[in-house]
C-alpha cells in the first residue's frame, strides 16, 4: 500500500476494538477508497503510509490514547459520542459499517466532539473512579453486615458511625445469640470494611494533594461548596472547559437542565435530563444541599439573595438542583477564564 494511492483521502473512521481496528476511508468525492482491518500494534505503521486527514473514532476505552498518537503524527483526530454516530449507520451492524459511519460523522462541521484528555487527566479520572468503586463496595459491605445482624434479630440505628461504634459491643453482648460461624463471617466483613476505609482515605488524600497543586483546581475551589473532589473531577472531565461555549452548555452536559420538548410553538419543560456525567451531577447536587443546610451563610455569597428567594418558592430538592446548576455554570466560567469566585467584587470592596 503506497501513500500515493491515497493522496485524496479526506476522512478515515476507526472502529476501535480490543485487539483489532477496522478502518474505512473516503476520498474528496465521497467514494470509499480504504477498507482495512489492522492489529492494534500496527496502528502507527499503518498511518505512516497514509496522508494526514480527519480521523474519527467513537468515545471509548483507549480513544484518547489513539487520538494523541495520531495527533503527534500530524492527523486531525476527532472523538465522537456513539449517540451522534448512530444516525450515520447503514445496513446491519458490523465493524466495517461502524467505521464507515464514524468516517461520515467526523466530517460534519457542527457535530459536537469530545475533548481529547491528557495523560494527567486520565490519571486523575482513574483516581476518582477507583474511589467511587471503593465507596460503593463499602456501602454494600455495610448493608450486608446490617442484613446479617437483622437475621439474628439485632437492629442498629441508621448511620455508618452508629454501626462502627456498636459493632464490637454487639458481638460481645450477643455472643450467645450469634453462632460461631456467623460471628466469623461478620468479623471478616468488618475487616473488609476497615480495609476499604483505609483505601478510600489514601485515595482521597492523593486527590486533595493534586487539588492543592493544580492551578485550575485552586481557582474552582473558590466557589462556595466546591472542594477537592468536585474541582479535580471537573478538571479530569473537561480540562479547561474549552469544549463548551458557555456555562449553560456545561450545565446541560452534566444533566442539570430541564428536559425540553417543543412542538407547534408550545414548549414543555420537564424533569432534569440526567444526561452526561452522572458522577459530576451527583457531586454538584451534594454541594448544593450542603450550602442549603447553612442559610446563615447565604448573605456572604453573591447569589445569596437569589437563593433566599428560590428557597421560598421552590421545593427544597428542586431548589437544590437549581443551585447545583448555578454552581456548575460558575465553576465552568472560573475554569475557562482562570479567575477566582467574586474576584471583581472583592477588588471593588478593597479598592483595587
UniProtKB/TrEMBL annotation:
Residues 12-149 form the Transposase IS110-like N-terminal domain. GO terms for molecular function: DNA binding; transposase activity. Transmembrane segments: none annotated. Residues 219-295 form the Transposase IS116/IS110/IS902 C-terminal domain. It comes from the Bacteria. GO terms for biological process: DNA transposition. InterPro entries: Transp_IS110-like_N, Transpos_IS110, Transposase_20. This is Transposase.
Amino acid at each position: 500500500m503506497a501513500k500515493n494511492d491515497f493522496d485524496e483521502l479526506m476522512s478515515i473512521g476507526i472502529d476501535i476494538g480490543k485487539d483489532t481496528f477496522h478502518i474505512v476511508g473516503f476520498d474528496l468525492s465521497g467514494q470509499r477508497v480504504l477498507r482495512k482491518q489492522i492489529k492494534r500494534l500496527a496502528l502507527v505503521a499503518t498511518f505512516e503510509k497514509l496522508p494526514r486527514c480527519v480521523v474519527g473514532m467513537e468515545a471509548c476505552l483507549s480513544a484518547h490514547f489513539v487520538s494523541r498518537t495520531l495527533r503527534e503524527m500530524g492527523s486531525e483526530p476527532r472523538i465522537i459520542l456513539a449517540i451522534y454516530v448512530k444516525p450515520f449507520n447503514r445496513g446491519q451492524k458490523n465493524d466495517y459499517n461502524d467505521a464507515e459511519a464514524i468516517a461520515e460523522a467526523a466530517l460534519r462541521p457542527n457535530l459536537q466532539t469530545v475533548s481529547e484528555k491528557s495523560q494527567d487527566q486520565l490519571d486523575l479520572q482513574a483516581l476518582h473512579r477507583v474511589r467511587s468503586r471503593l465507596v460503593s463496595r463499602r456501602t454494600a459491605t455495610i448493608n450486608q453486615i446490617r442484613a446479617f445482624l437483622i437475621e439474628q434479630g439485632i437492629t442498629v440505628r441508621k448511620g455508618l458511625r452508629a454501626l462502627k461504634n456498636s459493632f464490637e459491643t454487639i458481638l460481645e453482648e450477643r455472643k450467645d445469640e450469634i453462632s460461631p460461624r456467623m460471628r466469623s463471617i461478620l468479623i471478616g466483613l468488618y475487616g473488609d470494611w476497615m480495609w476499604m476505609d483505609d483505601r478510600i482515605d489514601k485515595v482521597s488524600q492523593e486527590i486533595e494533594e493534586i487539588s492543592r497543586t493544580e492551578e485550575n483546581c485552586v481557582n474552582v475551589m473558590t466557589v462556595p461548596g466546591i472542594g477537592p473532589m468536585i474541582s479535580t473531577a471537573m478538571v479530569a472531565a473537561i480540562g479547561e472547559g474549552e469544549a463548551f461555549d458557555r456555562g449553560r452548555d456545561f450545565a446541560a452536559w452534566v444533566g442539570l437542565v430541564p428536559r425540553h420538548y417543543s412542538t407547534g410553538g408550545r414548549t414543555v419543560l420537564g424533569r432534569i435530563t440526567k444526561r452526561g456525567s452522572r458522577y459530576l451531577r451527583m457531586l454538584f447536587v451534594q454541594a448544593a444541599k450542603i450550602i442549603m443546610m447553612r442559610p446563615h451563610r447565604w448573605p456572604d455569597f453573591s447569589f445569596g439573595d437569589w437563593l433566599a428567594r428560590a428557597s421560598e418558592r421552590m421545593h427544597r430538592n428542586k431548589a437544590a438542583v437549581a443551585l447545583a446548576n448555578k454552581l456548575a455554570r460558575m465553576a465552568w466560567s472560573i475554569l475557562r477564564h482562570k479567575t477566582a469566585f467574586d474576584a471583581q467584587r472583592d477588588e471593588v470592596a478593597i479598592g483595587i
